[in-house]
């Protein structure tokens, strides 16, 4: 049976066509690649997996702020790629525990401790120190670097200053106890000078490999402690040169087999001329303009490896050591070319190649490692793998200066990480780095750290305010009451929230520009503060959900940057990093109850006019609770806000508040005193009758008229009309003042 016309019409109706929205091109992550000196779109070689090798420290001394510059910066980059962009990052770092600096320092320490253990007699010590000062003087004369020269001069002066009293004591035949005391002072002061001298004379006799391993083992442990204190994530895998010597030997052998290495004098050198002549290879990819810089090349070879004999073993001055034949007084390992040790550059190539293969996504290091270290790494690795893409993206962190100057022991501005952490927290140091580009020079100075402190305080206050708002009690029975209707202000703030998140994303896509990202976050907080202030002025509660969402986003971003050291639902954790106790959750219910009780007591005290209770209430807020790290903020017509804040911060705030109040009181007292003095001076002036006001000025005038006005100067000359007119005006003004004074004393007597 045929259907009705209406049914037929419904059967023919179909869904209208749908078109997807035009959308916009997603922002792509770009990283500044030292291989091109441009920002390049980051494309890992294997999907989301990222292989990353970072040059680690040479461990022979305390880690300093230059190390912090590099490792905090790479930690931030690593966290952003892993936690924000969601890459699967495999992060490898090395420890250089075989190196010319380590060998020399280990020998020096060993020989000095032996010397100290022999307890040289004062006269012998003085003789040895004088002998040690001779090569120091020669070294000083040959040094051109001004910083190094200044350091050596200071060392020479200090030792000579300490040697003088011992020489005087020996000549005077002072008691043995006094001689020993002065000898100990000299021994401590001359340690570096004696160590260098002992090494130059006895260093070749140090042959035990364990002597060369103790020093780096100690400083590596200190480095890891420093990194943990800075909240720098440990690497996924850590490689030590001493543990990879067999792999290094194999790596060097492959380079020789491929025709890019040659044996000379028991050492193996890289043939830069042959490598550069190869059609598929390029030498000096990072800093081609530095190729041939002999000073840089020799620094890369190491102090123990730049003798005339060693340099003569090379076919070209630009060639560099892959394997060094060990001399007496150096650690050694067996190899096909005889006993020796790895060259500096080959270490990273062999270890990274063993773990990451023929091509890695990212290689990182400090700016000063570009040439020759990283250029030589690239050359020898591509010679080994016979490719031209050992590293896809080379990232180099910027230099660090101290108050505008190069960090140097000679300038007495050498700051270890432990020194820095005694002045500022790990979060504050990290914020200082986040507020600067990772690839540019960072100046560690008072103004830099003040900017970081202000940023931390600004964000902390916002988090505390939002947490205080969220603690405001809700009716547990009114489940729907927590969802309030949004007005224009909430819609505008939410729109701004989305815009700022997009701006942060664009900043991070742009070479991980954390400085711009943090400024966008700061601007978002400023908008939230304006919104909350407007709500407070209108005696209305702000939107809890909206502010909680914004605070949660900001917390997450700071966690990604490593500025929040542990899991935190909202804002900076209370109690410091490493605290397992959720201090806020544990104590806040009790503090809230105390706050509400105090509010009730204050209300009753006001109603019954009991000022003593109000004073005690203020003392609880201003004196007692800050000592416990608790801040109470009273707002007229609104509930008191309770905030858990670092105790030291609160005590500083209290001290600053009292200083400001004291300054205000002092200025008020000073103004009152000045006003009183001015009134007293004016009253004293008012008392003088106009006829007497000039009579005391006998040094200016000699004759007066019947009213007391001067007519002649001291020389008997009549005053000019202009002078007389001026004096008449002063006279008339005094008449008015004196008349006012007489009115103040109607009975004619002085008040």
From TrEMBL:
CDD domains assigned: CysRS_core
What EC number is given for this enzyme?
6.1.1.16
SUPFAM superfamilies, alphabetically?
A: Anticodon-binding domain of a subclass of class I aminoacyl-tRNA synthetases, Nucleotidylyl transferase
> Residues of the signal sequence?
none
Coiled-coil region: none
- Short name of any one Pfam family annotated for the protein: tRNA-synt_1e
Q: Which reaction does it catalyse?
A: tRNA(Cys) + L-cysteine + ATP = L-cysteinyl-tRNA(Cys) + AMP + diphosphate
Extract the InterPro entries matched here. Answer: Cys-tRNA-ligase (IPR015803), Cys-tRNA/MSH_ligase (IPR024909), Rossmann-like_a/b/a_fold (IPR014729), tRNA-synt_1_cat_dom (IPR032678), tRNAsynth_Ia_anticodon-bd (IPR009080)
Q: Which residues form the tRNA synthetases class I catalytic domain?
A: 42-452
Source organism's superkingdom?
A: Eukaryota
UniProt keyword Secreted present: no
Report keywords, A-Z: Aminoacyl-tRNA synthetase, ATP-binding, Ligase, Metal-binding, Nucleotide-binding, Protein biosynthesis, Zinc
The answer to whether the entry has keyword Cell cycle is no
Q: Where does the record place the region Disordered?
A: 1-22, 656-723
| Sequence ranges of Basic and acidic residues compositional bias | 656-682, 697-720
As cofactor, the record names:
Zn(2+)
UniProt function note? Catalyzes the ATP-dependent ligation of cysteine to tRNA(Cys).
Q: Indicate what this protein is called per its UniProt record.
A: Cysteine--tRNA ligase, cytoplasmic
Q: State the organism's lineage.
A: Eukaryota, Metazoa, Chordata, Craniata, Vertebrata
């Amino acid at each position: 049976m045929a259907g009705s016309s209406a049914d037929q019409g419904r059967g023919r109706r179909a869904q209208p066509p749908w078109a997807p929205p035009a959308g916009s091109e997603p922002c792509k992550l770009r990283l500044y690649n030292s291989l091109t000196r441009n920002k390049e779109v980051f494309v890992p070689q294997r999907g989301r997996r990222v292989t990353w090798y970072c040059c680690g420290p040479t461990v022979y001394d305390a880690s300093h702020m230059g190390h912090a510059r590099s490792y905090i910066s790479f930690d931030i980059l690593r966290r952003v790629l892993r936690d924000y962009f969601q890459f699967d990052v495999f992060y490898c770092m090395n420890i250089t525990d075989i190196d010319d600096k380590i060998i020399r320092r280990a020998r020096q320490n060993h020989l000095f401790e032996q010397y100290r253990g022999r307890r040289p007699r004062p006269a012998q010590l003085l003789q040895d120190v004088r002998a040690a000062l001779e090569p120091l003087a020669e070294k000083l004369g040959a040094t051109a670097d001004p910083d190094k020269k200044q350091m050596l001069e200071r060392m020479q002066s200090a030792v000579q200053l300490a040697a003088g009293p011992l020489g005087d004591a020996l000549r005077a035949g002072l008691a043995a106890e006094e001689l020993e005391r002065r000898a100990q002072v000299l021994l401590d002061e001359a340690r570096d000078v004696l160590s260098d001298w002992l090494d130059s004379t006895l260093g070749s006799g140090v042959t035990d490999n364990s002597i060369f391993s103790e020093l780096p083992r100690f400083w590596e442990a200190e480095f890891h402690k420093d990194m943990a204190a800075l909240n720098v994530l440990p690497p996924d895998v850590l490689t030590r040169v001493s543990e990879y010597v067999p792999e290094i030997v194999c790596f060097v052998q492959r380079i020789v087999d491929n025709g890019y290495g040659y044996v000379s004098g028991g050492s193996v050198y890289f043939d830069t001329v042959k490598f550069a002549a190869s059609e598929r290879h390029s030498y000096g990819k990072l800093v081609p303009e530095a190729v041939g810089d002999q000073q840089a090349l020799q620094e890369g070879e190491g102090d123990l490896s730049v003798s005339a004999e060693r340099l003569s073993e090379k076919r070209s001055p630009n060639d560099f050591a892959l394997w060094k034949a060990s001399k007496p007084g150096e650690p050694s390992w067996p190899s096909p070319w005889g006993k020796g040790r790895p060259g500096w550059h080959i270490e990273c190539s062999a270890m990274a190649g063993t773990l990451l293969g023929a091509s890695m996504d990212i290689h990182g290091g400090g700016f000063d490692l570009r040439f020759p270290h990283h250029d030589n790494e690239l050359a020898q690795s591509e010679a080994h793998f016979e490719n031209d893409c050992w590293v896809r993206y080379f990232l180099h962190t910027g230099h660090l200066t101290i108050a505008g100057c190069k960090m140097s022991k000679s300038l007495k501005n050498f700051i270890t990480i432990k020194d820095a952490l005694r002045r500022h927290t790990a979060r504050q140091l990290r914020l200082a780095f986040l507020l600067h580009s990772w690839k540019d020079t960072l100046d560690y100075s008072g103004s830099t750290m003040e900017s970081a402190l202000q940023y931390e305080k600004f964000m902390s206050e916002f988090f505390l305010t939002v947490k205080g708002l969220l603690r405001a009690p809700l009716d547990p029975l009114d489940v729907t009451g927590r969802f309030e209707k949004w007005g224009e202000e909430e819609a505008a703030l939410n729109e701004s929230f989305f815009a700022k998140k997009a701006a942060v994303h664009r900043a991070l896509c742009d070479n991980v520009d954390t400085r711009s990202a943090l400024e966008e976050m700061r601007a978002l907080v400023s908008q939230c503060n304006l919104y909350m202030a407007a709500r407070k002025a209108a005696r209305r509660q702000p939107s809890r959900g909206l502010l909680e969402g914004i605070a949660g986003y900001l917390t997450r971003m700071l966690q990604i940057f490593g500025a929040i050291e542990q899991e935190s639902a909202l804002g900076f954790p209370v109690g410091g990093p490493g605290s397992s106790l959720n201090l806020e959750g544990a104590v806040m219910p009790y503090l809230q109850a105390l706050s509400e009780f105090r509010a009730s007591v204050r209300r009753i005290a006001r109603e019954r006019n009991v000022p003593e209770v109000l004073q005690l209430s203020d003392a609880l807020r201003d004196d007692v609770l800050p000592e416990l790290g608790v801040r109470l903020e009273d707002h007229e017509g609104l509930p008191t806000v309770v905030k858990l804040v670092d105790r030291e911060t609160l005590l500083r705030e209290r001290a600053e508040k009292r200083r400001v109040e004291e300054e205000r009181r002092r200025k008020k007292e000073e103004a009152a005193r000045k006003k009183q003095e001015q009134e007293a001076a004016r009253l004293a002036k008012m008392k003088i009758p106009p006829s007497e006001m000039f009579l005391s000025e006998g040094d200016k005038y000699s004759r007066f008229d019947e009213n007391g006005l001067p007519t002649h100067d001291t020389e008997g000359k009549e005053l000019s009309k202009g002078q007389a007119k001026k004096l008449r005006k002063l006279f008339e003004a005094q008449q008015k003042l004196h008349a006012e004074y007489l009115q103040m004393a109607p009975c004619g007597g002085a008040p």
